[in-house]
Amino acid sequence: MTTLEEDLEDAARPSVTGEVHPGLRRARAWLSRAVEPGTVDFWRYVEDVDPVEAARRIRTGSAPDRIRALVGARAGQDETLADLRRAERCGARLVVPEDDEWPAFALHALTRATADQPHDPEHQAKRTKALVPPLALWVRGRARLDELTDRSVAVVGSRASTAYGEHVAGELGHQLAGRGWTVVSGGAYGIDAAAHRGALAADGPTVAVLACGVDRPYPAGNGALLHRIADAGLLVSEWPPGAAPHQHRFLVRNRLIAALTRGTVVVEAAARSGAQATAKRARDLGRPVLVVPGPVTSAMSVGCHELLRDQEGGARLVTSAAQVIEEVGGIGTDLAPPVERPTSPRDGLSDLAARVLDACPVRIGVSPERLASVAGCDVLEVLRVLPALELADLVQWTGTGWRLTPPPRPPGAAA
User: Fold this and answer.
1) How many angstroms from the chain centroid is the CA of residue 380?
2) pLDDT at residue 7, rounded to an integer
3) CA 212, 218, 222, 226: dihedral to nearest 10 degrees?
4) For the chain, how far is it from start to end, CA to CA, in angstroms?
5) GO:BP terms for this protein (predicted)?
6) Which residues make Cβ contacts (< 8 Å) with residue 249, sequence separation at least 6?
7) Extended beta strands in 242-297, E state
8) Which CATH number is correct for 351-404, 1.10.10.10, 3.40.50.1110, 3.40.190.10, 1.10.1040.20?
9) Positive or negative torsion for Cα 295, 300, 303, 304
10) Could you report the per-residue pLDDT of 341-351, keeping only the tens digit for each?
11) What are the respective helix, strand and coil percentages of the chain, to the nearest 5?
12) For strand 289-291 and strand 264-266, is the pairing parallel, antiparallel, or unpaired?
């Protein structure tokens, strides 16, 4: 069993195989534990000197003071082999930017956002809000991460959801999956779970982005659901196996849900919620923010309505999967069909015909002269439109005059 230093030294030598060196993968595994994700300066340092050299310098104490301060006591620790073994036991793997499977296109928005961050740490965004690319991703499941996230939509919302919200989230998840889209959420109670279940019910893939290790079912009540997601889709996390779901990690995790998808749908959100935070991350990344309206009396829809009221935020109201796909899909190829409206035999009638029809009584028949008087037109005009109204089964001749055609009797009704 080689040490981390031996693997790093071997990985530093030029390679001609074209495959990801095990030492490079181990370096990124170590870096994923060394500093909490979302740290601007640490990601920049790794990018500048490459992950193998970054790990070597931090381990030997030759890294800049700022970087060594970020790592702290973790610099001398090494759990990489244990992490990789835990991952292998639960059917997971470490996907790194050097892999073909890495969703580079989706995550490039995070790279652009990090480039805009100032170099002075005091003026950088807080770690829980910074849009920083991940150094690596622990992935559990058989599917490829890049393929599953290529056509994906985030469906997020409150944990303390209502029956209305869960119904809408389940329908959206089912319909999106049925049309070939991957549903991405956070695996939590409430809206997240409903969206995942809807996608699974349609035999479609779904991805849960976790704030803990992929081997750790959290929340415990969703353990069976998370196992189903791993079988049909993917569990994804920036934290190594065994990592605990600390509260700050949920805030950091939200940027990944926003970045990996083409748009974020907020189904239910309270005045302060993680779903709103995810929506704001999506907006900052230039991704569509879509909102499902709720009852104005529901506290669980206050956040949704605030997103819609924010004109600068650009959130769009959606009520169906077709409308979601229209916003995030291809231009001109994923258009939602027009809303179907009920039709009536009166549709398309001319103004004159409509006035004559309105003049007809319900029970007794009246003469064309009487209809002309009520409709405010000439008798000849009444005689001209009556045949067309009769053909449309809107009026009928009683033998003594014209009246509206009675509605059809229900089956079994007395004559």
Assistant:
1) 62
2) 84
3) 30
4) 93
5) DNA-mediated transformation
6) 36, 211, 212, 239, 243
7) 264-266, 289-291
8) 1.10.10.10
9) negative
10) 677 778 889 99
11) 50, 10, 40
12) parallel
